[in-house]
């Protein structure tokens, strides 16, 4: 019975067999970090602090992610190990439950951040650790439910590095983090040390996911054969 | 004949074969996939996989569509509604029997 359940989870694991999911998440974190860095390192009235620029940036970022994913899947993954279209059948959890959980987590985190800012807490001291723990926990939970861990045991290094890295950022002296965001107070209203810590946290998560995705992608390319024309056809005429 | 033996005897023989069970379980979790994906996941050779698929198609559990991806032929597979129902019934009965 357990074997049947594990078979039912395999198509979900296949979604990230080429590391594209992690590459996308890493790219997204790094792109957000870059736009935020540009915002807090340029004068208040520069083009990087315009709302439309942020919208354009978002559009560009999601286009690159969408087109990049499509291109990798179409030209590399599907010809090598096959095409899969996911329906609602293979979901680990029904989408509505996932949405409710995501909404609750987002509400709790937003309320916590808002409370911290209103109370004039030093967000620097807590936020990276909280964000890092959430990301590491989510990653560990999500992957243990889909990926056979014996096959990719090194992936435990991803949540561990995020956790350790975010703790290290938390332990940084505030003036070190503030170097990254000199204009933060004027532009965002947040203290430079808080913005600096958030930036560092995004760079950390982005870099780790990007490295993990790249390793997965290279391993995938090394262990799968380049496609042949007849690879996707049954052996005889019985299956038509 | 005790109840457990009776439940085992009632299991769908088409699905109960290990190779076909693997195929049906994989197809159950997706909307559709191609022949290459099933071959990659099940690690069966083309001949064995084709014969299992033929048996499942005969039983009306799997729908096979021949198409092209660009100029390359592609065989798309999906579990029919009957197939989904049969697999769910099979899981229930197996759970009961165990």
Which features characterize this protein?
heterodimer; A: 240 residues; mainly alpha; 70% helix; B: 98 residues; alpha+beta; Arc Repressor Mutant, subunit A; 6 helices; 3 strands; 19% strand
Helix coverage percent of chain A = 55-70%
Distance between the termini of chain A: 32 Å
Query: In one word, what is the shape of chain A?
Result: globular
Poorly predicted runs of chain A: none
CATH topology of chain B: Arc Repressor Mutant, subunit A
Binned strand content of chain B: 15-25%
Layout: helices, strands, pairs:
The complex is a heterodimer of chains A (240) and B (98).
Chain A: H1 2-14, H2 20-40, H3 51-81, E1 84-85, H4 95-118, H5 123-144, H6 157-171, H7 174-178, H8 184-187, H9 192-223
Helix pairs in contact in A: 2-3, 2-9, 5-6, 5-9, 6-9
Chain B: H1 3-9, H2 13-16, H3 18-28, E1 32-34, H4 35-42, H5 46-58, E2 62-69, E3 72-79, H6 81-97
Antiparallel strand pairs in B: 1-3, 2-3
Task: Briefly summarize what is shown.
With 240 residues, chain A is mostly helical.
Task: Write a structural description.
The complex is a heterodimer of chains A (240) and B (98). Chain A has 240 residues and is mainly α. Chain A is built from nine helices and one strand, in the order αααβαααααα. Chain A has helices spanning 2-14, 20-40, 51-81, 95-118, 123-144, 157-171, 174-178, 184-187, 192-223; one strand at residues 84-85. Chain B contains six helices and three strands, in the order H-H-H-E-H-H-E-E-H. A three-stranded antiparallel sheet of chain B has the order 1-3-2. In chain B, strand 2 and strand 3 (72-79) form a beta hairpin. In chain B, helix 1 packs antiparallel against helix 6. The longest helix of chain B has 17 residues, at 81-97. Chain B starts with a helix and ends with a helix. The model of chain B has no long low-confidence stretch (mean pLDDT 89). Classes of the chains: A mainly alpha (240), B alpha+beta (98). At the A-B interface, helix 1, helix 3 and strand 1 of A face helix 3, strand 1, helix 4, helix 5 and strand 2 of B.
